Amino acid sequence: MQPQPLDSSDGLTWSLYGCKEYELIVTIKSKHWRLVKDAVMQKGGALLKIGRTTAEKALLLKYWSKMAKIEARGYKHFKHEGSGQVDSVL
User: Fold this and answer.
1) Residue 2 and which of 19, 67, 68, 70 are 20 to 30 A apart at CA?
2) pLDDT digits over 3-58, tens only?
3) What share of residues in the chain are helix, strand, coil (percent, to 5)?
4) Rounded to an integer, what distance in angstroms lies between the CA atom of residue 36 and that of residue 29?
5) Where in the chain are the domains?
């Protein structure tokens, strides 16, 4: 299955790139999963297993019967709509 580009009009694109809310994504070796998950829970946090790493150098999202390549980009908090200008935070 070949990854397809994400359509900017769909909800998936907005959920990945268009919000101010975010979650941290980390990788944990399988043999350490239980130990790390328990340690995070003891501190009041939670871990959710969402995927696996492979030798391929791409971030792919498989959902329903589709696969999409996730681009390395993020939300620009201080960008003016339509101008492309970003405010300085200093």
Assistant:
1) 19
2) 556 565 667 777 776 666 667 788 899 999 999 999 999 999 999 888 888 888 88
3) 20, 10, 65
4) 10
5) 1-90
